[in-house]
Amino acid sequence: MAKAKVGKRAPRYLQVCNDLVAMIRNGDVAVGDMLPTELELCDRFEISRHTAREALRRVEDMGLVERKRGSGTRVTAREAPVVYNQYVANMDELMQYGQATRLAICSAARDPVPAHLASALGCKPGQSVPHLVGLRSYRDQDSALPICVTEIWVPNASRAQEKDLLDLDQSERALYRVLDFSRLSRVRQTLSADNLGRAAADLLAADPDSAALVINRRYHDLDDRLILMAISTHPKERFRYSTELSAHGKSG
Amino acid sequence: MAKAKVGKRAPRYLQVCNDLVAMIRNGDVAVGDMLPTELELCDRFEISRHTAREALRRVEDMGLVERKRGSGTRVTAREAPVVYNQYVANMDELMQYGQATRLAICSAARDPVPAHLASALGCKPGQSVPHLVGLRSYRDQDSALPICVTEIWVPNASRAQEKDLLDLDQSERALYRVLDFSRLSRVRQTLSADNLGRAAADLLAADPDSAALVINRRYHDLDDRLILMAISTHPKERFRYSTELSAHGKSG
DNA sequence: CCGTAGAATATGTCCGGACAAATAACTATG
DNA sequence: CATAGTTATTTGTCCGGACATATTCTACGG
């Protein structure tokens, strides 16, 4: 981050920034403590407030401190985390199914939630919740084998949403509306493997003993409430999940 | 992003920032074109250079422009990409095995690469490459079943690295040195499912027909050269891969 | 025609000052 | 003692100016 060119000294605000980062890493100011105020830094380093602010801004950008008007600058972390980022531009890319595929809902009803999903859904076991089952396949290829079977639970649907979801003619569009991209804030997903089993094998025209990639996705809104949980079961060789993580910094 | 409180006007620099963003989105300035210079913005909006810079800084932070001293501000994108980030603090967290597990190498040799891996490894089929096989299990629990079997190929090892890797007493430490965290820049991984098969089932003490989660990880250095490829095969129920994606912005 | 030196241009760094707004600490009041 | 209002503190916004440094353009000379 700080270039070490010989005979070319770093800008003053970077020097101050580095000193502050060092103070934090050395534990001179503990996590939770306040950093010196801007005016104190001006005094101590003999700099203008502008330069002090530039230094603090860098420290803030590193994620080490939190600044609040009227209050001050509080240390929130001792080390800047080495962060690997996965960039996902949109929902389709996240799901990795692309525009060429399509989810055909084949059943939609209010069903009691199974015991093993109750806690994840934030429901009591046996509680009834809108529940869809569909098959994802490639568009324009009705003959091809489906990619996966997807089971969808919508625990916090509104009355209107539920009505649309349970109407097979509208449920696909309704799904997209429920999963409003702009309100989405977090997606948690868990990938595991399992043998297909009889029921899924029938739907997918595959061997029941065959291995399957199971992806459990939970979509949360800005208040971290669960909007929707989708469990997709992909028979082996019909789907692979790829990610690319880039080290901290700009990515391509 | 821009708060819309009534009777509480936004700061001037934010207004200017929004105007600039709008200009870019409307196509008034195309991607590749130059944005007005700081001094031009001072004139046009009747603001100080400080305010102009603050506005431009915001636009830059959105990833819409690129600024270069002596040159100017060039538009690099028409829309701020809706980005979902996965934050991974360190290598162990990326691998999700944690400190409690350990990889025990059980074989290390120079082996010819299988045909189906040749292109991914950037080698000719049949070319010999350092090749390790190990079992990952929980520390302090020799009795417990291993989590996975891992197959590792190191196509671009130096002479010295290769020597250490192929020495079973040193290969574990050597692996960590080869996978130098600081030189790592990209990790590509692909998750898929497969049935275990005879060989892996024997090593893992599992049913050969049982499903397995297969994770193929490719580690690349700053020049995007492949450092190492690791293929881990996890019998079902011994491992799950979880990620949490957060929408653009600070994450917790 | 090409390359170089210098001029013009644009962003980066840094100083000074002033007021606004949010927070926290304090004080007066019931 | 609890609460409301006041004050002091601290960061946010915004202005002015000056010089540094990187880039680009231009004119000159070979």
Structure, described:
The structure is a homodimer of 252-residue chains. Chain A has 252 residues and is of the alpha+beta class. Chain A folds into 2 domains: 12-75, Winged helix-like DNA-binding domain superfamily/Winged helix DNA-binding domain (Arc Repressor Mutant, subunit A, Orthogonal Bundle); 91-246, 3-Layer(aba) Sandwich (Chorismate lyase), CATH 3.40.1410.10. The first copy, chain A, contains 8 helices and 10 strands. The first copy, chain A, has helices spanning 12-26, 38-45, 49-61, 91-95, 115-121, 159-166, 171-178, 198-204; strands at 65-68, 72-75, 84-86, 101-112, 128-138, 148-153, 184-195, 211-221, 226-235, 241-247. A 6-stranded antiparallel beta sheet of chain A has the order 4-5-6-9-8-7, with helices on both faces. In chain A, strands 1-2 form a two-stranded antiparallel sheet. In chain A, β8 and β9 form a beta hairpin. In chain A, α1 (12-26) packs across α3 (49-61). The two termini of chain A are 19 Å apart. Chain A binds chain B through residues 81-90, 94, 181, 184-195, 209-214, 234-237, 239-247, and chain B through 81-90, 94, 181, 184-195, 209-214, 234-237, 239-247. The first copy, chain A, binds a DNA duplex (30 and 30 nucleotides) through α3.
